[in-house]
Each structure stands twice: as C-alpha cells, then as structure tokens.
Design a protein that fits this description.
Blueprint: E1 21-22, E2 30-37, E3 44-50, E4 76-77, E5 84-85
C-alpha cells in the first residue's frame, strides 16, 4: 500500500493552527502535522514545529535509520551535537 496524501495548505497561517498537534513527550516544546502515512509499514512524512524557547538538549543526541531534514525558518534550535540557526541546515 502506498502512503496517504494531503491536499496542500499553508501550515504557517494563523487560521491553520488547529492542524498542529502536540508531540507526545514534547508537549509545550514541539508540535507536528502528519502529511502522509503508510498504514502497513508505519512510514510517515511530517512537519515538526518547535515552539519558542524549546530546548531538546536534555534528551541527548539521537540517530535514525532514516534521513531527517531540518529547515530553520527563524530562531535557533539548540542541539547537543551542533547548534542550528537561521540560514543553516543539518
């Protein structure tokens, strides 16, 4: 089975705030929107938004068996292994 799809919408406009949901164990720090999911494999694509002041350094470094792309729209995201800020990517 292939992944589901979602019709495009602007996730940054204020009237779309209700589409963002808190991420379990990161409540108050991060929210997500699932863009697509494969119900058989569990593979998914999502947008993650870190709220102002979010600091995930207490969780330590993480590795994944899959690629992860980070795009910073504004601000900084403290990370134990690298400090990522505006106009930088990991």
């Amino acid at each position: 089975m292939s992944k589901s799809t979602t019709t495009y919408w602007n996730s940054l406009v204020p009237d779309q705030r209700t589409r963002w949901t808190p991420i379990k164990e990161l409540e108050g720090m991060a929210e997500e929107i699932t863009l697509s999911i494969d119900p058989v494999t569990g593979e998914y694509t999502r947008l993650t938004r870190f709220l102002p002041g979010a600091d995930t350094s207490a969780f330590g470094g993480k590795t994944h068996a899959y690629p992860e792309e980070v795009f910073i729209v504004s601000g900084r995201l403290p990370c134990p292994s690298v400090s990522v800020g505006l106009a930088m990517f990991a």
